[in-house]
């Protein structure tokens, strides 16, 4: 092939980054401004990236097409939104009963995760960089508490894309409703329950005012990772220096987002409980059924989708080893601390 | 004051980084090579940092003095080694029953941790950057299993600096022995037990051959953070661009080290157990006594050391909020996953 024209190390460069999240979310959208600021600092103001909310350049769910076509150089998104193109997208973000936040980062940086996902993304002209994680999400807001799996049957539950497949298999009725319309649907009773993210983001949308039963854990999102997508042709044209700038600025933003969620969720949870939110764990029979159906779903997909099969084999082996290790010193340390009066 | 002479953005620069860890530890020493490689890439080879093991420039525990005097520009260390200068050093690294790995990063990035530690470090001419975490460490290797606090009385236990204060308060006899001499002391029975890090590093030193009882959790190191120290005068002389280079390369190395430990510990644990290691949890009465004595110790230090008091007040408030939040969705998600056959 022909070598791309390399942008010189110190060239002035102006790129655009489109996000799948609205600017009001200072966590999910804010990560892009953190990233762009670091890129600017690292290059003495020469590499400028403007950040854009959905609709400014492309719609929220048009970011993969835009990067693939090269109409925008960069995007930040939750890859599982695109499971309709190929279920493998979800493995780079979150699947029900998947890796937690630290394990996702370990799979990317130390395991084969980044390598395998980059192999997969090549067909979409995408090179990806881990850039953000919310940590384990909450299980959503329910108009009535859920005491057993039976209470979940027929329940109209607003839930993000891929998880809906499992919700359906355990008898729920997944609903696809944009963030801005959830509150009203919950208030009117058009839906019975809705999940969004966790205390900090959920508080902004005010769900606790209309559905006070707040479930945990969000078993379909144990550590969803956001990715920075870069169009491969644009990326290949960068100097080695600018490539490193993208990698390290993304690493900074990746760490910063998880830190923000950890800090802000802790404070927001107190406010929500003071405002009337009632925390409850999902019942054991529901968790067990959801786990069983998730594993069955992954077998079904493996039988049909070779991309998924290749990545999931590595992912599930890594998950087994991680959970074996984490159950000893990490879990017992955390468990002891959580039982203390601090 | 006089403004320092600023190094121009693209100047060639050659700095030295001294570590408190030997090169054989590809995790603890290796983080410095990862950092230096990223700095080099980010600057197109203009900013070169050479990395040095203890003894090459200064001894392992001479790094703070070297940075303070400005004889070396950079160091990487576990700050708790320097609690003898001021107990506050330990708060930037690990204290018994302190923050876990994610919480340490959240305290630094999102809480007041980095700001407070930088205020403290100013008197030592140090500016610090989080650069590495081992995750929760194991509780060490015991010649005989420990069934209750009574078994711990009079026990000669090789344990890192600050934790020895609590070990002593619960009846143990802390021993200060360099890493290279632990194996022989354990084999001969000069000591009864020794802690080092976790499966991956411990495997290299072969302790399982002479003391097979492997305790968890390492309650004195729930998430020890390593720091990059930079001499403030050298740092102040850098361009804004090179300052950002240090920050972002350190952030990359910070994330990379935890990922390495998570990945490598999981694999090493299996090997150790296959080699005869017998895992056991510290008994509840020992954990409870150690927790109680730790809190008493922190009160004692707060009464005498205003530096500690200022930082610990913020640290302990953050710890209480984090543990309140983590016990819900993070802990129940992890706990469920750890109980599954994966």
TrEMBL record, chains A, B:
Gene Ontology molecular function: any one: metal ion binding
InterPro entries per UniProt: DctP_fam (IPR018389), SBP_TakP-like (IPR026289), TRAP_DctP_sf (IPR038404)
Keyword Calcium: no
Any GO BP annotation: transmembrane transport
Keyword Metal-binding: yes
Gene Ontology CC terms: tripartite ATP-independent periplasmic transporter complex
Binding site for substrate: 137, 158, 195, 221
One family name in Pfam for this protein: DctP
Keywords for the protein's UniProt record, in alphabetical order: Metal-binding, Signal
SUPFAM superfamilies with a match to the protein in the record: Periplasmic binding protein-like II
Binding site for Na(+): 196
Coiled coil: none
Alphabetical list of PANTHER family matching this protein: EXTRACYTOPLASMIC SOLUTE RECEPTOR PROTEIN (PTHR33376:SF5), PTHR33376
This protein's name: ABC transporter substrate-binding protein
Species annotation: Pseudaquabacterium pictum
């Amino acid at each position: 092939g022909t070598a791309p024209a390399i942008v010189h190390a110190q060239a002035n460069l102006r790129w655009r980054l489109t996000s799948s999240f609205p600017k009001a979310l200072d966590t999910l959208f804010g990560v892009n401004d953190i990233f762009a600021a670091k890129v600017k600092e690292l290059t003495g103001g020469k590499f400028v990236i403007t950040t854009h909310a959905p609709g400014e350049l492309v719609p929220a769910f048009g970011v993969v097409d835009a990067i693939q076509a090269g109409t925008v150089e960069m995007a930040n998104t939750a890859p599982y939104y695109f499971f309709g193109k190929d279920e493998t997208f979800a493995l780079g973000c979150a699947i029900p009963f998947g890796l937690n936040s630290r394990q996702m980062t370990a799979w990317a940086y130390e395991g084969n995760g980044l390598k395998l996902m980059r192999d997969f993304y090549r067909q979409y002209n995408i090179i990806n960089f881990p850039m953000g994680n919310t940590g384990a999400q909450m299980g959503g807001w329910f108009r009535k508490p859920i005491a057993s799996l039976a209470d979940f049957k027929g329940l109209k539950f607003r839930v993000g894309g891929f998880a809906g497949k499992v919700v359906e298999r355990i008898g729920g009725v997944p609903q696809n409703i944009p963030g801005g319309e959830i509150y009203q649907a919950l208030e009117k009773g058009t839906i019975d329950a809705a999940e969004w993210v966790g205390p900090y983001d959920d508080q902004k949308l005010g769900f606790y005012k209309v559905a006070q039963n707040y479930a945990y854990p969000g078993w379909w999102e144990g550590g969803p990772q956001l990715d920075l997508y870069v169009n491969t042709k644009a990326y290949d044209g960068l100097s080695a220096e600018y490539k490193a700038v993208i990698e390290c600025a993304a690493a900074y933003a990746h760490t910063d987002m998880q830190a923000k969620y950890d800090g802000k969720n802790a404070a927001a949870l107190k406010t929500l409980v003071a405002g009337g939110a009632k925390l409850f764990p999902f019942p054991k029979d529901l968790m067990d059924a959801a786990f069983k159906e998730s594993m069955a779903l992954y077998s079904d997909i493996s039988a049909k989708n070779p991309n998924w099969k290749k990545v999931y084999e590595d992912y599930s082996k890594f998950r087994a080893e991680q959970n074996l290790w984490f159950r000893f010193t990490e879990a017992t340390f955390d468990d002891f601390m959580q039982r203390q009066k601090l």
